[in-house]
Each structure stands twice: as structure tokens, then as C-alpha cells.
TrEMBL record:
Gene Ontology MF terms: 16S rRNA (guanine(966)-N(2))-methyltransferase activity; nucleic acid binding
PROSITE patterns from the UniProt entry: N6_MTASE
Gene3D superfamilies named among the record's database cross-references: Vaccinia Virus protein VP39
Protein name: 16S rRNA (Guanine(966)-N(2))-methyltransferase RsmD
EC numbers, comma separated: 2.1.1.171
NCBIfam families, sorted: 16S rRNA (guanine(966)-N(2))-methyltransferase RsmD (TIGR00095)
Domain of life according to the entry: Bacteria
Enzyme class: transferase
Species this protein is from: Vallitalea pronyensis
InterPro entries: DNA_methylase_N6_adenine_CS (IPR002052), RNA_MeTrfase_RsmD (IPR004398), SAM-dependent_MTases_sf (IPR029063)
């Protein structure tokens, strides 16, 4: 849900929805651009079926947020708090509108800055999370840059997990050199979820 080249256009078209929870069926808007890949409702539903027991009352971080659909789904399903990180104006506009329309904005913070800078800020504030979701642009190496920072800064609470959406052929071998491990992977036709803890 992230545009590397800032070619985002704010779209007043409702192309997604909240699947379950207190904001169920509420429509969501998404930013439109060259590199934007909104996570489909089917893929999102699969993800949350896998983590449904971990979401309630958790602190959730949504990196490369795009429309904010993943973090909003987490809040709808009972997450205590969610932080949304994106640096693009159109994405930030969408996130704010979607949070207002779902009436979940009081449980959210929107962080308008580059992901790496945001992680530095969380580290300085000693802010930690139970679930960290990231959906960076495919095939640009963000996984091997961001995940080691999350681990080295200690941003994940004990028992928490990082969930990374990436292209299906993205190598996650670098995780072997970190103080964590791949818990499982879920494959789709062109992409996958990697669960790290």
C-alpha cells in the first residue's frame, strides 16, 4: 500500500471495506498511484483469520500504511491502539478519512514521515508494539533494511510478531542473522506473508 515515487492521487472511490469487528462493512478509500498495491479483501481476511487471537487489546504498528486498511482492520477487531506510518500526502489524507469514517480515529496516531525516521522516533521514545505489519514496495530491498532496525531498536514486545507482506520470491534469509526467527509463511499466487518473532 505504499508508493515509492510519490505519484499518489487521492481517490474518492470506495474500493475496499472493513471485513469484521465494530466497523464491519464500512467502505474505505485508497490512494491511487503507480506503485500502490492495496491488500485485497480476501488476502486481508486470510491474514486476520491467522492472527485473530493476537489482535485483541494489542498495540499495532502499520508501516508503509497506504490507505491504512490493515491497521484499521486491527482496530475494528479490538486492537487497543494503532500507529500508521506513511510519508505521502495522499496516503495520509486517505488514512485520516478512513479513520474518521470508521470512527476509530481516537484509538490511532498518524505518523507523517519516512519509515526509517519513524522507527528512530519510536526507539527514542521507547515505544513498543505487539504486532508490526509492513507492506513495502516489492523488490526494493526494504525488508532487509527495516526488519533489522525493528529488531535492533527492540520495538517488538515480548511474544509479539512482525508480519511482512512481500513478493513471493523475496528472500528473507537475512532473518537468520537476527535475534528472531521466521515463525511461518503464507503463500499466495504472487505474494506472501512472513511471520517473524
Amino acid at each position: 500500500m505504499y508508493n515509492l515515487f510519490s505519484k499518489l492521487v487521492y481517490r474518492k472511490e470506495y474500493s475496499m471495506r472493513v471485513i469484521a469487528g465494530k466497523a464491519r462493512r464500512r467502505p474505505l478509500v485508497s490512494p491511487e498511484g503507480l506503485q500502490v498495491r492495496p491488500t485485497t479483501d480476501r488476502t486481508k481476511e486470510t491474514l486476520f483469520n491467522m492472527i485473530q487471537h493476537d489482535v485483541y487489546d494489542c498495540d499495532f504498528l502499520d508501516l508503509f500504511s497506504g490507505s491504512g486498511a490493515i491497521g484499521i482492520e486491527a482496530l475494528s477487531r479490538g486492537a487497543k491502539h494503532a500507529v500508521f506510518v506513511d510519508e505521502h500526502k495522499a496516503a495520509l489524507t486517505c488514512i485520516k478519512e478512513n479513520l474518521n469514517k470508521t470512527m476509530l480515529i481516537e484509538a490511532a496516531d498518524i505518523c507523517s514521515m519516512h519509515v526509517v525516521k519513524a522507527l528512530e522516533q519510536f526507539n527514542k521514545r521507547q515505544q513498543t508494539f505487539d504486532i508490526i505489519f509492513m507492506d513495502p514496495p516489492y523488490n526494493h530491498g526494504w525488508e532487509s533494511r527495516v526488519i533489522p532496525l525493528i529488531v535492533s531498536y527492540g520495538l517488538l514486545n515480548e511474544g509479539g510478531m512482525i508480519i511482512c507482506e512481500s513478493a513471493i520470491d523475496t528472500s528473507m534469509d537475512f532473518v537468520d542473522d537476527l535475534s528472531c526467527m521466521i515463525l511461518k509463511e503464507k503463500y499466495f499466487k504472487t505474494n506472501k506473508f512472513t511471520f517473524i518473532g
